[in-house]
Structures are given as structure tokens and as C-alpha cells.
Amino acid sequence: MDDLKNKTVVTVISRITERPTAKEACMVVIYGQDLGKKYNLEAASVIIGRSSKSDIQIDQESVSRNHCKLINTGKSIILRDLGSTNGTYVNDEPIDEYVARDGDLIKIGRTIFKFLTGGNIEHAYHEEIYRLTTIDGLTQVYNKRYFLEVLEREISRGYRYGRDLSLIMFDIDHFKQVNDSFGHLAGDHVLKHLASVIKERIRREDIMARYGGEEFAIILPEIDAYNARQFAEKIRRMVERTSFKFEDTAIPITISIGVVSAGAETTGPTEFIKLADEHLYAAKRGGRNCVVSDLKTP
User: Fold this and answer.
1) Cβ atoms within 10 Å of 191's Cβ, excluding its own
2) Residue range 245-256: average pLDDT?
3) Average pLDDT in the 198-205 region?
4) CB atoms < 10 A from the CB of 36, how many?
5) C-alpha distances in angstroms, 14 versus 3, 7, 10, 89, 278?
6) pTM given for the model
7) Which whole-number Å values give the CA distances from 89 to 106, 110, 181, 271, in the listed order?
8) Predicted confidence band at 296 (pLDDT cuts at 50, 70, 90)?
9) Is 119 helix (H, G, I), strand (E, B) or coil?
10) What is the mean predicted confidence (pLDDT) over 63-81?
11) The sheet that has 88-90: what strands, in order across it?
12) Could you tell me the CA-to-CA distances from 29 to 63, 105, 125 in Å, in that order?
């Protein structure tokens, strides 16, 4: 009897371990409407589209009625495009069918999801929500909230220790025309590409942020007015020479830049930003694709 009991137990355990385990996964909205919303992917299939009958509805013109499907095989999550008009993108690459991996960025229309999977989904989700408090989901540079916190801290630090501090504010020239001529998907692509190009050229201690819309800011700790202007000219020329393309269509891009450096009269971030913005708009009035700062042009 004891031998039979032991054998039965072994058989039951063996059958349990052979059963396929449903893949624990979810997607989190990191850019677009319902920012931070989590969609669990427990069902065998999940349809994403503009239709109200979709499992995940994205009510945008750039999204097809039945745009793509997520298939849970029990061992993996497969993302399949359903012949959508504007395509399904993973990490900026168009896909027909793709096995999703932890951390993938899935772009459908103008909405970006982050795919999460692994042993502790809840922990990963809460980490991503915390990250959204500091990072802009589209461009992956810092957001306005974090920028303001750091700027206030750096102004206080510079004043206390007598250290240089400069601020660059810039935006894309005629960005509305980009959206009107090429569409908002192209505009989003330009913003992301621009942020990526400039982010690669800044120092580790510099803070680049999306201030709003097509406007960006860079905090330059321990950089004086002359060197800040030199750096601004460098990124202006770099953007002008960069090839921006969306779906094989070239999109000429330039930026206008305002530069300001902290002085004894700098009392806080509001005044500092206001002065940088005034220089930025002076650059636009001066013909765009140029830099305006407290220094005269060398």
C-alpha cells in the first residue's frame, strides 16, 4: 500500500509539471492616452485596434479598426500585424510577426506600450510607473517635471558654491508644417530621432528634457556663457546636417536656440527659463536656425 501511495504521488506531480504555464505578461502605456494603464495579457489572444469591439481600443485615426493581435501560446507572446494601414512597430522597426521580449517598446498609431514579462510583473509594473514620473515616453529623455526639480537644485547649488550654470532652450523650426505635411506619426518620429541625436552628444552630468511639444531644454552644470553658446552652435549645426526620414521620405529639420547663464540676479528656475525662452523667440524672429544668447556672436 505504501509503494502504491508513493507511486500515485509521483505520477500526479509529473502531470502537473508537464502542463504548459500561461505566459505572465502585460503592456503598460508609456506614451499616449491613459498613460500608465496596464493591460494584462492572460487571454489566448488580444486584439488591438480602433474598433470599439477591440480588446484594447485606441481611438486614433492612425490606428486601423483591427490593427494587430497578441497571441499567448503559453510559452511566449507573439505580436502579429493584421494588415494595418500604418504598421505595427517594435523598437522603431516595422513587424509582421514578432515574439515579444521583456522591455520591448510597441508603437501602435501614436500610442507606445512597454511590454513586461518575467517572474514579478507587479514589481516591474510599479518600477515603470515610477520611471514615468521622470521620463518622457516618446523621446526617452527627462520630462518637464524632473527638469524643473533638477534646475531648482542646480541653481541653488551654483549660487551656494559660486559655480557656473547654463541653460539651453530650443525647439524645432516650423514643426507644425511637419505635422501638416507629413502627418503626426512623422512628427513623433522626428521628435524621437532629434532627442536621440542630441542626447548622444551631451555629458553624463547634463540634463536633457522635453519641456513641452517640440520644445526641449538642456541643463549644463559648471558651464559658462561662452562654452554654453559654443555647445549650442555645435548641436544646431549637427541637427541641420542630420538626415531625418520617415518611411523613406526626407524631412529637413532645423532648430532655434536660446542660451542663458546664471548670474547674481538669478533667483529661481522661473526667471531663468523665461530669459532662455526670450532668447529662443529672438532666434525665431531673427530668421530661425540660429542661436541667441547673452553673448554677442563671435
Assistant:
1) 22
2) 95
3) 95
4) 13
5) 17, 11, 6, 40, 72
6) 0.86
7) 6, 11, 22, 41
8) low
9) coil
10) 96
11) 38-40, 25-31, 111-117, 105-108, 88-90, 93-95
12) 15, 10, 11
Q: Is 128 a catalytic residue?
A: no
Buried b (16+ CB within 10 A) or exposed e, 270-292: eebbebbbebbeebbeeeebbbb
Give the cell for residue 98. Answer: 514578432
Question: Catalytic: which of 97, 127, 214, 233?
Answer: 214
Helices (H), the chain: 2-18, 121-132, 144-161, 175-182, 184-199, 225-241, 269-285
Go through 162-190 and write b for each residue having 16 or more CB atoms within 10 A of its CB, e for each that does not: eebbbbbbbbbbebeebbeebbebbbbbb
pLDDT, average across residues 263-281: 88
- From the number of C-beta atoms within 10 Å of its C-beta (0-12, 13-18, 19+), residue 98 rates as buried
Q: Mean of the pLDDT values across residues 153-157?
A: 93
